[in-house]
Write a structure and sequence with these properties.
This protein has about 325 residues and is an alpha/beta fold. It contains three helices and 38 strands. The radius of gyration is 26 Å and the shape is flat. It starts with a helix and ends with a helix.
């Protein structure tokens, strides 16, 4: 692909030859002749570049040498736009594999692909252009929207609803029972969970994550929210639009998150916790109280991130402070 064609996809302005031909997208630590390299951060250059690259895409103002330089406003966005032009994803063709079981009362739309060993129960609905990979279970009465991708060994339990363009990576379980028990004498009685899970449009759920059905009502994940691998979302949780939830987070029952919340890795939210809009949680934050809008919090229990960082600095000084106290005590006692 010539540089001028690349720029028709990503925009920007060029210092170099628009007729130069690019053969692929490479990495900064393994430069090959004819590769285009994306550079997201100036500091990533040091120690990596052993030769002058043929083509670099970077942000305006970066101090870097290349035979051809394409300056764009957002290199990461340009990367997302260009990568599929060089490396296409090979998805199954429409059709139902002969070993798949589709209940006679299920409804399957047009141009749907259903893989080997998949099981679709009665009253389930699968809308147009959706791809169901092998070994997927879709429960009774569940609804899957248009252009969804459901990867192998995913379970969608009964009466769950997926919007359009939802992506479920392998091993996801949607609509498992919530973890609820009440002790009666020497035994724990299971709390029935008869609600549902609703995933709105453009939600993605990472591998081996679980979203439990509600006790009553619904567990709901807002449009555009992206959930990483190994995340646990409990019954009756409400998550807003365009949230990012990173790996190994856990959100306990009946909690709520506003829109545009970011939870870094291994964060936790207690049951009935409430997190406002545009809140940022640093890694390993534990939320035990409500967090208002537009806060950056960290630590356990969660508090303002700047305060948490000051406390961390003071904690590191404690050994030195303790030694100074002991030295002062020795001087006092000697005197």
């Amino acid at each position: 692909m010539k540089i001028k064609e690349i720029m028709s996809y990503i925009g920007g302005h060029l210092i170099g030859d628009p007729e130069f031909e690019v053969f692929g997208i490479g990495t900064i630590d393994n430069i090959t002749s004819g590769d285009l390299v994306f550079l997201f951060h100036q500091q990533k250059i040091a120690g990596f570049i052993s030769s002058i690259p043929d083509v670099i895409v970077c942000r305006e103002g970066m101090d870097i040498q290349a035979k051809n330089l394409i300056f764009v406003e957002n290199p990461r966005l340009a990367f997302i736009q260009l990568l599929p032009k060089f490396y296409t994803q090979d998805y199954p063709e429409p059709g139902i594999h002969p070993t798949a079981f589709i209940h006679p009362q299920a409804r399957v739309g047009e141009r749907v692909s259903i893989g080997a060993g998949t099981h679709v129960e009665s009253d389930a609905i699968i809308a147009d252009d959706t791809i169901i990979f092998p070994q997927v279970y879709i429960g009774k009465g569940s609804q899957i929207g248009k252009s969804c991708l459901i990867f192998p060994q995913t379970v969608i339990r009964e009466n769950c609803i997926l919007g359009d363009r939802v992506i479920l990576q392998s091993g996801v379980i949607i609509g498992g029972d919530g973890f609820g028990y009440e002790r009666s004498g020497d035994v724990y009685l299971k709390v029935p969970h008869v609600g549902k899970v609703v995933l709105e449009d453009d939600v993605e759920v990472g591998a081996n994550s679980t979203i439990d059905r509600a006790t009553l009502g619904e567990t709901r994940i807002g449009a555009g929210t992206k959930i990483d691998n190994l995340v646990m979302i409990a019954h009756n949780v409400k998550i807003g639009k365009n949230c990012i939830i990173v790996a190994q987070c856990g959100i306990a029952g009946s909690s709520s998150l506003g829109d545009d919340v970011i939870m870094a890795g291994q964060c936790g939210v207690v049951d009935h916790g409430k997190i406002g809009n545009r809140v940022r949680l640093a890694a390993r934050t534990g939320v035990v109280n409500s967090i208002p809008d537009d806060q950056m919090v960290s630590g356990f229990p969660a508090q303002d991130h700047k305060i948490e960082m000051k406390e961390k600095v003071l904690l590191r000084k404690l050994p030195d402070l303790w030694q100074r106290i002991k030295n002062l005590e020795k001087k006092v006692f000697k005197s």
